[in-house]
Specification:
This protein has three domains: 83 residues, no CATH class; 56 residues, no CATH class; 55 residues, 5' to 3' exonuclease, C-terminal subdomain (DNA polymerase, domain 1, Orthogonal Bundle). Helix content is 38%, strand content 16%. α3 packs antiparallel against α4.
């Protein structure tokens, strides 16, 4: 049996996952984590976990939003149905694709397995390193630690030439009025955290190209 992301005849959204009217044809649910650098390690560890039975399992992690019926969801993954295609009387369809940081990968492929392994290691470093310098150092080691990791790192760099700096600079986008372009300028100017930006002098910040008095006032609050 395979799990799919397409909508079958008679299917509808149920709790952020796809539901099928004929519950007796559902063999269970399989968790699909969002394969992105921002996905926390706890969700990546649940990837491919299977829950038998027709009832949709509880949401993994806290809800960051709610459907009209009150069901919670978050952007880090969802439960997908596994259908008993033998019961339907036809062969299972080929496995689909899943979006990643560089494009689509085939579900169940070696490429997907390599990516998941890399993401788990990446998130472990991000979530456990003591300070940005240690994090960057450990990620450099990760980027060349295995042939598979080198391939993943190369694809991420191709999709985003500023990676991995762009991953860290994105945290600065939480500052009022700061978008991705300005966040990268702040990061390149040596400001690595929101606290460092807010503690900087007016002169230091105004010296950054494109950062005027209006944006300075927003940042300083």
């Amino acid at each position: 049996m395979l799990f799919i992301k397409g909508k079958l005849p008679g299917a509808q959204l149920d709790g952020g996952a796809m539901s099928f009217d004929n519950s007796d044809l559902i063999s269970g649910w399989r968790y699909s984590a969002t394969l992105q650098l921002r996905t926390p390690l706890a969700y990546l560890k649940r990837h491919d976990e299977f829950s038998p039975g027709p009832q949709v399992p509880p949401i993994v992690g806290p809800a960051e939003g709610h459907l009209p019926d009150g069901t919670g969801f978050n952007p880090y993954g969802m439960w997908l149905q596994e259908i008993d295609y033998n019961g339907l009387g036809f062969a299972p369809p080929p496995s689909g694709n899943q979006a990643t940081g560089w494009g689509q990968v085939r579900i169940g492929s070696e490429e997907e397995r390599n990516l998941i392994s890399f993401l788990k290691s990446f998130r472990y470093v991000v979530e456990t390193a003591e300070g940005l310098d240690q994090m960057i150092s450990e990620l450099k080691e990760l980027s060349t630690s295995t042939p598979e990791n080198r391939k993943v790192w190369k694809k991420l760099k191709k999709a985003d030439p500023l990676f991995p700096d762009s991953f860290f600079s994105s945290a600065l986008e939480s500052l009022p009025g700061v978008g991705s372009s300005m966040a990268q300028k702040l990061y390149q100017a040596g400001f690595r955290t929101v606290e460092e930006v807010q503690a900087a002098s007016d002169g230091e910040l105004l010296a950054i190209p494109g950062l005027g008095k209006g944006l300075l006032a927003k940042i300083k609050g």
